[in-house]
């Protein structure tokens, strides 16, 4: 797909936002996509339950700091999508209509996607749809037990920076979202494009999906 | 300052936002601060010219993707601040009232600050205030020549992940903002707090400020 910029149709990327999403889970991948969009034809939708700004503040710590990000589309009026990114964060740990709506949107939109990318315990939201049943996936290593319990039929891989199974790419915690996004960009647009973005970000990539220092750290 | 959470007064942190700020320049440090705020007493203000959402979209690429973030304060109604973070991005490269207003705010607020932290070519904005004259600082390595030209009286350090001089901490490009923020957190709250945040982010830290693979990459 290198040379996608010459195509008429953009690659249509979306990301779901919900209260208490982890800032870097979203903005690591999004910075990579912003940089990709300088040379390739991609579009981006930020999807949430409503068009109200969505906070990163943890629902479990009212005194915590947070930032508010403006959605572009609601779950009921999404544009056509080829790719969906699902971040994690403490907000995934609550049971609320907003989280249930996010899970329902992921389930409903999946059949039209070419790729689904999860960051951190965003894979827990996808696990709750059933879409990961019988598939290999990974997640945040510090929140391993809690997240993997959400998908008892998933083949959870404890030692992985990221895992691909079919068209679902799941990454480990937070900053691993940058590495899975760069790996996915490399898959679609080639190594030069991905490494060029990484170099521009001055990001030292984890390039081997099986090397995972945080599995050791958290005793997995 | 470890144990700051027991104090009455929070550490009051601000960040400036302007059109075309680099997403990860801001949200790398902000995710560290969000996590810090779970255990320590900190407050956060997002400052811009107006309270309108501020886009990360590059002003030089109208078709590029971007995200909009909601400020909490304007430059004319700032809260008291102890710390200011200045991100970079392509938006720094334009001459506009918004950028001039950002530079003026940095200049005016600096005397009240305990710390000023720059990410990427955010140091170029600070250089334009004159506050870096006679000081050591670093910046984005890919944009080295363009940014350093903004501060001919600055002692620019080409091989550094980050540089401290007095109370000004300047980092190299984009993801180096995470490393300088963690180093600054370590300075204030101790190694355990900083490493705990890094581990939670599954971020492999650059812990030595003088080790800089990107200086080699860009021939500096």
Report on the structure:
2 copies of one chain form a homodimer. With 220 residues, chain A is an alpha/beta fold. Chain A has a single domain (4-217), classed as Class I glutamine amidotransferase (GATase) domain (Rossmann fold). Helices cover 31% and strands 18% of the residues of chain A. Chain A is built from 7 helices and 11 strands. Chain A has a 7-stranded mixed sheet, sandwiched between helices. In chain A, helix 5 packs antiparallel against helix 6. The longest helix of chain A has 14 residues, at 23-36. The first copy, chain A, is globular. The termini of chain A are far apart.
CATH topology of chain A: Rossmann fold
Strands of chain A, count: 11
Strand order of the largest sheet of chain A: 5-2-1-6-7-11-10
Which chains have the largest interface? A-B, 49 and 49 residues
Radius of gyration of chain A: 16 Å
- The coarse overall form of chain A would be globular
Query: Which CATH class of chain A applies here?
Result: Alpha Beta
What oligomeric state is this? Answer: homodimer
Structural class based on helices, strands and sheet pairing of chain A: alpha/beta
Q: What characterizes the major β-sheet of chain A?
A: 7 strands, mixed
Helix content of chain A: 25-40%
Q: Output the number of helix runs of chain A.
A: 7
CATH architecture classification of chain A: 3-Layer(aba) Sandwich
